[in-house]
Amino acid sequence: MEQTVSLHDLFSVLRKRFIFIISTALFVVAITGVISYLFLTPIYKASTQILINQKQTEQFQVSSQDIQTNIQLINTYIVIIKSPAILTKVIEILDLDTTPDLLEKKIKVETTQDSQVIKISVKDPEHYKSVDIANTIVEVLQEEIQMLMNVNNVYILSPAVYLENPLPATPNPVLNMSIAAVCGLMIGVGLAFLINYLDMTIKTEQDIEELLGFPVIGIVSPISEGDGNNIKGLLGRFWRRGQQDV
Q1: What distance in Å separates the CA atoms of residue 234 and residue 236, rounded to the nearest whole number?
Q2: Is 75 exposed, middle or buried (CB count within 10 Å of its CB: 0-12, 13-18, 19+)?
Q3: Start and end of every Polysaccharide chain length determinant N-terminal domain (predicted)?
C-alpha cells in the first residue's frame, strides 16, 4: 500500500519530538562552546597598510599612465613581500623559531582593485608577535626594495599597533555557537523524523489498517473509571443472582 505523508503529519512529528529536537540543538551548542573556549587556540591578527608609488621626480603632476604603471607593480611587490629574501631577515631580526615557509603561511597580502595600497596581515597565537612581524616586514621591505628594484617607493600608511585587550580573530565562539544552533536544529529534526519512521509500534487505527491491510469496522471506546465501577457492580449482581439460582 502506498504511504502518503501530509503536512499535518509532519507538524505532528515536530510537535511530538519538540523537546528532543531542542535538547539535541542545546547539546550541539554546548559541545561547540566547550571546544571553542577550552580547546581551540586563540589566533590574533595584526595588519599594516603601505602605499606603493613611483620614484619621486621633479614633476608635481602624476598622470594616469603613471598610476597604471604603479598598479602593474603591485603583483611584483606582493611576491617580494612573501619571498625568502624578506622573510629570512624578518626571522633573524625578531629571532623567530620558524622557517620562511612556515612564516609565509601566517601572512596574507591583499589589495583592492585599481589601488596602490597593499594590506599586510599577520596571524599568530601571540598578539605582540603578530604586530612585530607585520611592522618588521614593512621595515625590511623598505630597505630591500632599494637594492632589488633601485627605487624608494614604499610608504607606511598605518602601522600595526599593540592593543591592551586584543580580541582573537579566531575562533569566534559566538559565531561558532550560532552556526551550531542551526546545525543542531537540523540534526534534531532529521533524527526526529528518522525515529518516527523506524517506530513500528501500533498507536492508532490507521496503523492497524496499514499493517494488516484490512479496514477497521469497530472501535472499543475507552472506559472511564466511573464506567468501570458500574460494569463491575453490574457483573457482581449477575454473579450473585446466578449463585442464588444454583
Answers
A1: 5
A2: exposed
A3: 4-92
CA distance 167 to 151: 38
Domains of the chain as residue ranges with CATH: 1-40+171-199 (no CATH), 44-158 (3.30.70.1130), 204-246 (no CATH)
Which pLDDT tens digit goes with each residue over 165-208? 999 999 999 999 999 999 999 999 999 999 988 877 766 666 66
What is the C-alpha separation between 111 and 98, in angstroms, rounded?
26
Residues β-bridged to residue 122 = 46, 107
**Which residues are CB-neighbours of 33 under 8 A, at least 6 positions away?**
173, 176, 177, 180
86-135 pLDDT tens trace: 999 999 999 999 999 999 999 999 987 777 889 999 999 999 999 999 99
Separation of CA 220 from chain center: 54
The SS3 of residue 236 is helix
